[in-house]
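During the reporting period the student researcher (J.K.) took over the structure-prediction task from the postdoctoral fellow and processed the backlog of single-chain submissions. One of the processed entries is reproduced below for the supervisory committee.
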Amino acid sequence: MRKLKINRGYVLVSTLVIMAVMLVITYFLADTLFSELAIARNQKAATTAFHLAEAGVQEAIWRVQFNPATRNPFISTADGVTTIPHDDPALLTGGSYTVTIKNTAIKVATITSVGIYKIGIKTTRREIKLNIAEAEQPPPYDDDGAFFSHSAGGESTGDLEFSSATVNVYGGSIHSGRDISFKASTINVEAGIRAERNIKNQQNSTINCNCSLTGGSPACSSNPGCSYTYLPAMDMPMIDFDSDSPNSYKNQAIAQNQYYTSSANFFTQTSFSAGQTKTFNGVIYIEGGITIDQNRTMNMNGVLASSGSISIGGSGSGSPFNGVLNITRANPDAPAGALAQSGFSVNSKGDLSGTGLVYAGFRTDFNNSSSPLTFTGGFLTRRMYFNARTLNIYFDADVINDTLANPTATPIIEINHWEEEY
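J.K. obtained the following structure tokens:
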């Protein structure tokens, strides 16, 4: 009996020891497991917060490039500040980020993006800082020609002819890759007159580029704006009308659901009836050409492009031949203009005004009318005939280059460092 009691005591002690050992092992296993879970949770939270901060950086860069409300302070102020908050949930539940764009100089800024991710009561925070700057590069149209004509690939075109015209050119020149002819016209040019071949003063034209022509020979005044030279002209800049690129004007119009297979299709689809005034935005592309007449007034806040010709008004009598095209820019960097792969014409019953680029792959005609025209931007064409009309043209190289779809500046992103905080 005594021996049985002793054995029972050993069993009890052994059981307690084993249970204690198992408890210790279980504790260490549980501690390791929970530590690994905590590490995994922290890693997930840190990675998520970092990606939220990166999302803020990418949004800031996009806004600086394409959003006028953000871009305008960046390019025009030395101390502008833009803050972009995104509260929970931003991209995912528990996530938020805040981005600050602070200018340190004009076209130079520091982006600070803070990403925050919450899991339960724990909050993880990541911060990224970087500098952005906009670097200048040579523009595709590096010329001061408000009127510019030239051939491409050695074609024998590029003439400018002004007949019974009154033309005032402010801030720019008249530039031809071949001949310039003035016939019974009054021409006032703040800059110069340049031609690759001949400049002809015919029928007693009055030429004030601060240069006067007598018998074809220039006699320039001492005004420093005078520049009368015979110089080779550059080739006419090209426009991407209809390539496969998403940036071609045709594909931009398709993306905006403003591509039309004909002028009739355009007038029908947009309900642009005779006698109406309508405003259009963005990019419109029309196959085969378009004539704006029938007493229509088209306000184009952007680009009107055509695979054929663009014609404003007609040459007959009466209101059916009236037509008006007004061109404006959506924002200071936006393209604007009338772009024709073939010809562009403003007829005797047509009027043109606004700000933009007029581009014609073949020729441009301004026909006789008592109605004066005022335009800001420039005219790029293979050749031009300006007949019996008054035009005030204010040269703007930025408008031309923006519409050629080759911007003069590109944002360059330089990452200085990043900071992380938990």
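The committee noted the following: The chain is about 25% helix and 40% strand.
J.K. will present the remaining backlog at the next meeting.
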